[in-house]
Every structure is written in C-alpha cells, then in structure tokens.
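Quick start: load a record and inspect it. Here is CehA/McbA family metallohydrolase:
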Amino acid sequence: MQRRDVLRLSALAGAAGVLTLDPMTFTQADAAGAGDAREQTKTLSGHLPTGAPDFVYVPVEVPGGVREIAVSYTYDKPSVPAGTQGNACDIGIFDERGTELGGRGFRGWSGGARTEFAISAEEATPGYLAGPVHAGTWHVVLGPYTVAPQGLDYEVTVTLRYGEPGTTPKPVHPPQRAKGRGRAWYRGDSHLHTVHSDGKRTPAELVAAARAAGLDFITTTEHNTISSHGAFDGLWGDDLLILTGEEITTRNGHVVALGTDPGVFIDWRYRARDNRFGQFARKIRQAGGLVIPAHPHGTCVGCNWKFGFNEADAVEVWNADFTPDDEITVSEWDNTLVAASRGDGRWLPAVGHSDAHREPQVVGLPQTVVLADDLSRTALQEGIRAGRCWIAESSKIDLTFEAVGGRGKHAGIGERLQVGRTEEVTVRLKVSGVGPSCSVRFLTDQGQLYGTAVPDSGTVTAEWRTTASYAAYVRAEVRHAPADGGASGIPGPMAAMTNPIWLGER
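Running the structure step on this input writes:
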C-alpha cells in the first residue's frame, strides 16, 4: 500500500481511528506438506505515516481444517532526534466473530511485549486465548503507538497449520473468597503484571512475591487481555485471595478494572473524543468490578487520564515509588474533597498499587489496606468504595486513625463523625514501622494544620484537637524527609497516607 493510499484511508477512518487493509487469503489447496504437517505462510509488508489510525486491521481469510494460527511481525526502529518519538507498534488478534467494539471476537493482545504468538484449541501464547481456529475472517490488529517522522515500515507474517483441532481445556479460575480473619484490615496490591502482558514474572513468581510482601489479596490486571485469569490454578490459598481484572490501556489513560468476573474482557479501543468510556465503565461494574483510573498523571505516552472522574469508583493516587506525578495526583485528589465536604457531590477514595512488572520492582510498594467484613471480592470492594482504606509503602507499617467527639462519638477512616460545628474533636493517629526521619501531618480542607516528627523508633501517637467549623475533614500522611532538606517546600516521599475522616453533620 502506498503512502498516499494510507493517508486517504486514514482520513476516511475518521474519529474511530481504524484502518482495514486488503485481506490475506488462504486456501487449503495451497497448503504444503502432508497430513497434520500441512501449513501455509504469507507475509504482508506496508508503511504507516505519522497520523496513522490508532488501529490497523489485517484481515486473514482462514479456511476450514486449521489447527493453529501463528503470527509474527517486525517493524523498523529508525534513529530520531532527541525529544522526538520513535516507532512503537503493538499487536493483537480478533477471530471470525469480528472486531466490533465490545464484541465477542477478541482472542488476545500482547501490545509491544512480543514479536510472535500462536493460538490453537489446546493452548495459546500468554496474552492470547486458547480455542478452536474456526473458518472465517480473522483480523490481526496493529496498534501504531508512536510513529517516527519518517513513518513506520512493518511486516506481518501469518502461518496456518492444518490438522485435528484438539480440545480446549476448561479454565480454572480463582475462588472469590479466602479464609481471612473476619472483619479486619486486609492488605492488597491490585495493579500487577506478569508474562501475560508486558511483565517478566510468571504467575507463580508474582504470587511468591505477594506472599513475601505480607499481602492478603492481589488482582491480576494485564494490559488489554484476560488470559491470566486462568493462569493461577493452585497458587491461591487460605492466606491469599487472587482477584481477576484488567488494565484497560487506552491512548488517553489507563484504568484498573478491579475484581471483574473471571473471563470477562473489557475493550480499550477508544479515546476520550469518542465518548465511549462511560459505556465500558458500566461494563466493568456489570461484571462486578470497580473503575479505578491508574496513574492519572503518569509520564508515559498515553498514560495521562483524559476521561474525567465521573465514572470512577476510586482513584489510584500512588503508583509504585512515590514520584512527582503521584504528588500531583494526591494534590488534585485532595482538592476534590472540598466539594464533597460541603455535600456537593460524592468523593473518590484514594488507593495505591505497585504496578510491578519485573524485578527489582517491588510487589506491595505501595499496598492498599482495606477494612472489610471478610476476605472476599465483595467485602473488599465494599471497603474500597466506602473509603475504608489507607495506603502504605510496605506491610512493616501499621497505623490507626480516628476522630473522637463527646458522648462516645467515634469515626474511623472513610467515615463521618456526627458532631456540632463547635464541638471539640480529638484526632488521633498511631503509626509504627516507619523509617527514621519521617514526619506525620494532618491535612484538612485548609491544608496542613498539624505536623510532628516521628521518633527514630518509628512509632508515634499524634493527637490534634479541632472542630468541624475549623476542619471539614482530616486525613493523615506519613512522609519521609525531603531529599533537599525542605528547601523547595515540597514534602518528602510518602510512607503512608489515609483517606479522610469527615467532621460535622451533613
């Protein structure tokens, strides 16, 4: 296909951002070999300019009798000037059921993590779904993530192998409840990757890291695929609940679908301008999941969150090591609490996840600690949705945070202390297990109104008295010392933080 043809078709694709090329056509009569050794291979080459559609579909006409479809691809990676994006191209595939947005045809996605994959009834490359290779029009999908100024040259090779189809094993999914400790605080990490997308850990290695981190639950959230949902057979136990989910990775931000039903795929092929996110946020909730925008101010291409927060159930304010983009997210999230304190709208609880992909990235840095009635998907989600949760950099840190009024009135994290505007309130934080040179601070709708240092022992009880007229809410942070000694006025990295306690009558 010539450059001018691609440009013309790109314009025709419009806001949908999709381009469909001429099909690769295979017939059984052309297959080389004998018996089950028969196979066919075809290769397509092309060029995509800057401004190419988000998704380029290569139709593959698959005849009957195919046992396995295998795909490989390459693309050029030319040198580019400093500050200019080079070439990066993702890949996936849809089967004969079609490429309709949110349809049933999805069979796998590996992004830019793999250069080849194969699918048969018996098995599939991680990131892809095993199942019969039925006759019909399949579509290899290319996702030109970034394109260099000179364009992107690609080559896609498809091999069909003929023979008896075999049997697809029934996936074994994790149970949705573990033994637990009754109503208790449970530690979890719900943004994690393995070899089923762009991670390097196997599911077994991820689970071992989670147990070593002292976690009670994890959620598997691969980029734009659900192939990991059936990959944890035998890895859960009374001590560890494994939830299923997905990181829906669009060109305008990523969202963690936390705790969706096993085997439910949520589509990602839209931008904010397409006005489709609400539809798929509802699909997440219909599948029993929570909608959690991930790293809203992340620095990678496509990571910035552009869909707004009206559809969110919580927001990931802390992703991996605490960095300036997390600082921005925490400040932005805190600003939204003021409106909720006036009763002008609901508030979004804050959560934190490691987004760990490989060593030396630490599973459980950070982790969300949730007050739940038991160790189950439903109870954990209820705790997160209610804001009964706090975030810590490791399981070494423990804390309690409460507000107490007269006549035995009491409220914990995420709750409201029903007191009059002038009634005295005592806010108390107990924290242990933090490192040296840390400090505690209490933040309100006016900003920080109290702070104190943590002794070298790493354990402190901090108390502050206030009223609902002075503080509409109070939340706590435990911070490491700033690297510049405080010269910039920017606090040090987070060690732990809570969701707010609300003060006053509604």
